[in-house]
Each structure stands twice: as structure tokens, then as C-alpha cells.
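SAMPLE LOG
Freezer: B-3
Tube label: C17
Construct: single chain, 160 aa
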Amino acid sequence: MSSSYSSGMNGSFNRRGAERGLPKKCRCGAESVIKTADTLKNPGRLFHCCPYGSKEDNGHLFKWTDIAMVEEMKEVEGVVEKIQAEMESLACETRTCEAVASSYEKEIEAIKALAKGCEKEIGELKAMIVCSEKEIQSLRCFKNIIVCSVVLFVVYVFIF
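STRUCTURE (predicted):
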């Protein structure tokens, strides 16, 4: 029976040079297999081994599955702790981003209020322009009346 597990979460090794966690391959490159011990000392105990290894040949893979599982769980715990730390960091960053966004919302509201004030001032300026245009029109009429009066006066003076 071949193992479907990868070797260790991060490929770390223990003191004897063997991979930590569930082994996938032997040093010789062969896929590891899971077997059941039939000895008096370890009856029914599962182990990972190389299909080419033997009791006499220590150069091939041999590892108790329960020990490999404990190592694998420790590796998983380490990964989970790193993920939790990253999640806490991301939560902190999220809160910071929300605070910055909130401050921008306040600035945007202030800009909107300022824009409304500008709209009011622009309306007032437009009204002043309309009023000024009416005054200019009145002054043009007045100027025309004065020019006509001067022309009539000059004509009157030269005729009489």
C-alpha cells in the first residue's frame, strides 16, 4: 500500500537525517509503502518503509507511522500558528485601512459641504452678473440719451 501523504509539511529533518512527518520516498528514490509489523514487540503497529529495504539493510527508509503522524501534526500546528499570526496581522491592517478610509470619508463630506457653499456663491455671482448687465444696459441707454442731447444741442447752436 503506497502512502498518499507528502513528506513533512516543510521538508524538515530530524537528528538522524530522516524526514520529519510522513515520508513519501526513500533515499534511494523508491516510493514509500505502509506495512504492518508482525513482531512480538510491536504487533500490528504500522510503519513506512522502502519496498527494497530489509532488517539487515539500514540504508533504506523505515519509520513508525505513529511517530510520523505526531511529527506531521507538530508541523501542521506550526503552520496553523503562522496562519493565525498572519490573520491577526491582516486584521490589524484591516482596522488601520478602515480608519484611514473613515478619515477620508470625513474629508469627502467636508469637501462636499465646501462645494455646496461654492455652488451658493456661484449662484450669487451669476445674479450679480445679471444685475450688472442690466445696469450696463441702463448706462448704454443713458449714454445714448446724452449723445442725442449733445447732438441736438450742437445742431441747435449751429442752426440758431
